Amino acid sequence: MVLSRATRIALRIFVALVIALLYAPLLYVARLSISTAHNFAWPPRGWTVGNWRDAMHEPGPRAALWHSMLTATTATVIALVLGTLAAFALSRHRFFGRNTVGLALVLPIALPGIVTAIALRSAFDRINVAVSSGTLAVAHATFCVVIVYNNVSARLGRVSRNLDEASADLGAGPLQTLRYVTFPLMRTALLAGALLAFALSFDEIIVTTFNVDGGYQTLPLWFADNFARPNKIPVVNVVATFVVLASIVPVYFAQRISDGGLRTAASM
Amino acid sequence: MPRQLGRRVGRFAAAHERFRLALELTPPVVWLVVIYIGALTALVVTSFFTMATDPTGLVTKLSTTPTLTNFRRLLTSASLSPAYRTVTLRTLQAAATVTIVDAIFAIPVAFYVAKVASKWARRGLIVALTMPLWAGYLVKAYAWRSLLDPQGGAIKKLVGHTPGHGFAASVIVLSYLWFPYMVIAVYAGFERLPNSLLEASTDLGAKNFRTFRSVVLPQVMPSLVAGSVFTFSLTLGDFYVNQIVGGTTEFLGNVIRRQFATDAPFAAAFAIVPIVVMIVYLFGARATGALEEL
């Protein structure tokens, strides 16, 4: 397939436009967060850091941020354990019902959010468990398992089992092999899976809406509660911009990890 | 002592494949079966309950006597009742439109990134395309709400016309939100497509369009379908976007959410509709081999 110069240029312009479109709304919110106007009129007017100062004194977003971190961390830890175990079981063994287990893993994210949300809530209601921060973490862990599973099984597919056998032949016990051979090979896949699971949980709101009590507000819930209040517009803009800026950190790490991962895979 | 025990279990596991499998498989399966399959069962069980008003007519309570009341309300003899059919069809229409829009944008972008861009540019482009995923879903919907605002919003001022808040706005914003999922999936497909295949097609005399239609598209179809599972399912299960930019239009998710607050059993019955839709969709997707790529 030889692309003409014109086709290449047209493609390049198209890609540039799509990327501009992807970022325009984010830049717009960032601009609003330092605007003196407390509405959405175009163009945004005035410049101030006052909104940021005001937002720092708001207790709501800070508590919500903490709740989101706590939920995402708990869910990620559970998902790491279960997702890794599932990946080893499904990648390294052939057994009856293997496809069914594979399907059960994907189902919590393949089914629409509202279904997962009210199914989990109905279950908690049927067994008389009041929803709380605990049920929220359980719900989040359930749809995060598949993220870790995907990352680890992709890596397992590229790592030869001969390495395990070589380790055993050289006299290492199974736990030593796990620690010195298998784990180092898995490390970046685990980190990448953990980052993605954390991000998914941190940003989730549909399952969250139904599976936590009113007193426990996560950051997305705080957002949903405040974006329609006219007097909260400046603070909402600041928190929104903060979330966008903070997301650069995990993206940076994810990128570094994926490079490392590729190098590990390439060197084998 | 515990160390020794650990070693012994480890050695036993290494020697006994089945034992090792059981060790690895039990925790995730127990979690998913007990919690997730259990939850879906609870949903179905709840759909047979009703909210019954007590004799005073003042208090409504959950009645756990199984009845078909909710399904009688939801279904006519052959199909969904008109009110619920309209909202279901509207949601399906949105999900299909979002999926097609995302595919149309994702194919050229993913092709450029995988097959045209230099190695150096490729890395930057992948970061640029995936970073918006981390930026907060409500933040983006909320930004669009003001951009699309019918009074003084940026689109009205800059373009002269805005779709305002309604069905079109929901489709635009949902397409925007799920685009990275589609582009990542399609990119993975293009990346696996060997360049030699494209060259062979050219050598055999195919023009670019013919190569694209007969060689490229069939090869990336499974990836495209894998991406569509996300765009379709995420649209089907969403209600916040519609609440933020959809005006008075309601989707399945909005109705289920509203009903759940007052009549959870009916909401549970209605939630079976998107489950059936997705099961049909997943079966169709499996036929193309897309599920291996999820």
Describe the structure.
The complex is a heterodimer of chains A (268) and B (294). Chain A contains twelve helices and no strands. Chain A has 268 residues and is mainly alpha-helical. The longest helix of chain A has 34 residues, at 59-92. In chain B, helix 4 (82-116) packs parallel to helix 8 (167-192), helix 4 crosses helix 10 (208-236) and helix 6 packs across helix 8 (167-192). Chain B starts with a helix and ends in a 7-residue tail after the last helix. At the A-B interface, helix 1, helix 3, helix 4, helix 5 and helix 6 of A face helix 1, helix 2, helix 4, helix 5 and helix 6 of B.
Brief characterization of the structure:
Chain A is mainly alpha-helical and 268 residues long. Chain A has helices at 5-32, 50-56, 59-92, 98-110, 113-126, 133-158, 162-169, 174-203, 206-210, 219-226, 233-246, 248-266. The longest helix of chain A is centred in the N-terminal third of the chain and has 34 residues, at 59-92.
Query: Roughly how many Å apart are the termini of chain B?
Result: 44 Å
Estimated share of beta-strand residues of chain A: under 5%
Overall geometry of chain B comes to globular
The coarse silhouette of chain A is globular
Q: What is the percentage of strand-forming residues of chain B?
A: under 5%
Low-pLDDT windows of residues of chain A: 260-268
**Mean model confidence by pLDDT of chain B:** 88
Structural class of chain B: mainly alpha
Low-confidence stretches of chain B: none
Q: DSSP helix count of chain A?
A: 12
Secondary-structure element sequence of chain A? HHHHHHHHHHHH
Content-based structural category of chain A: mainly alpha
Q: Which H/E pattern describes the elements of chain B?
A: HHEEHHHHHHHHHHH
User: How many β-strand runs of chain A?
Assistant: 0
Rg result of chain A: 23 Å
Largest beta sheet of chain B: what is the strand line-up? 1-2
Major sheet of chain A, described briefly? none
The level of helicity of chain B is over 70%
Number of helices of chain B: 13
Can you summarize the main beta sheet of chain B? 2 strands, antiparallel
